[in-house]
Specification:
Helices cover 73% and strands 0% of the residues. The protein is mostly helical and 298 residues long. The chain has one domain.
């Protein structure tokens, strides 16, 4: 008598293989579309970063003021070469960086170069009425502010780092020392150059979207407040960028040019505060810039 139970094969719905195959094909297609869309979106984002950052670099490094900025940035190198050429007997890397580099480079060169470049990023485009043309492109205001800030960082580091490194090399060579003898000195100044450029740049960029004359306000902050705050007792110096830069130099250089500087912060804490401050300034800049309205002038 034939069995009435159906075999496992008979349970399957006809054409189930083709249905499953189609489902897999559709899922694969959707996954491919999502993957390709992500790649396309990433490529477009990278292109926007490249375009805005490149335009900012060309603007900051391609105008006439680059001559003045380059000469000012080269002051450490000019001084080092001059002292070496004059055969100053007491000239060595520690004396140069202690007696000259801290007050000259940190408190003059770094502040002025960052001030002039950061305040021109957005404010000059507003005054020249060129910003509305950029805003017609498919790119948001926060992205514009962020990418311009990145372009600024690249520009000022191109200006500041090479002369600093060469000046260090000249001082070491003049003393008959190898380039690696006092790397703690070079490393300390490179670290404060990068962090100082980021912090001052964020601060001056924020000022540029707040007031119509950011250069004047920046000069007061950079050359008045940052200069006198170190002599104020208590925790007031912690309200300045220069305090954290000096703290980093004191902690990173073995024979520190700021051995007597009063601070209760570690190098790691000072670095973290400067990074957080830089990010906060950029975020505040974006928040203000987002609310600004621009109209193309006739």
């Amino acid at each position: 008598m034939p069995s009435t139970a159906s075999s496992p094969r008979s349970w399957r719905i006809p054409g189930w293989r083709s249905v499953a195959s189609k489902a897999r094909t559709i899922a694969s297609t959707r996954s491919s579309d999502i993957w390709w869309g992500d790649r396309t979106g990433l490529a477009e984002a990278v292109r926007k970063v490249w375009v805005v950052t490149g335009l900012t670099l060309r603007y900051l490094l391609g105008t006439r003021r680059i001559i003045a900025m380059a000469l000012l940035s080269a002051v450490p190198l000019i001084l080092a070469v001059g002292l070496a050429a004059a055969r100053v007997a007491s000239f060595d890397v520690l004396q140069l960086f202690q007696a000259v580099m801290v007050p000259l480079f940190l408190q003059v060169v770094l502040i002025f170069v960052t001030l002039v470049n950061a305040t021109s990023l957005i404010r000059e485009e507003i005054d020249d009425n060129t910003l509305p043309f950029l805003l017609t492109r498919p790119i948001s205001k926060p992205a514009i502010a962020t990418y311009k800030y990145l372009g600024y960082l690249a520009a000022v580091l191109i200006l500041l780092v090479p002369p600093l490194v060469v000046a260090y090399g000249v001082t070491e060579a003049y003393g008959g020392l190898s380039f690696t003898t006092d790397l703690d000195v070079l490393g300390g100044f490179l670290l404060v150059t990068v962090l100082g450029s980021a912090a001052y740049g964020g601060l001056f960029l924020f000022i540029s979207v707040l007031v119509r004359k950011p250069l004047a306000v920046g000069l007061l902050i950079g050359f008045v407040w940052e200069s006198i705050v170190g002599s104020i007792p208590g925790d007031v110096p912690k309200l300045s960028v220069i305090h954290y830069l000096r703290t980093i130099l004191k902690g990173t250089i073995t024979v520190s040019p700021l051995a007597g500087y009063r601070t209760d912060l570690s190098v790691a804490t000072a670095v973290g505060i400067l990074i957080a401050f830089s990010i906060a300034m950029v975020i505040l800049t974006i928040a203000v810039f987002q609310q600004m309205e621009f109209r193309q002038k006739a």
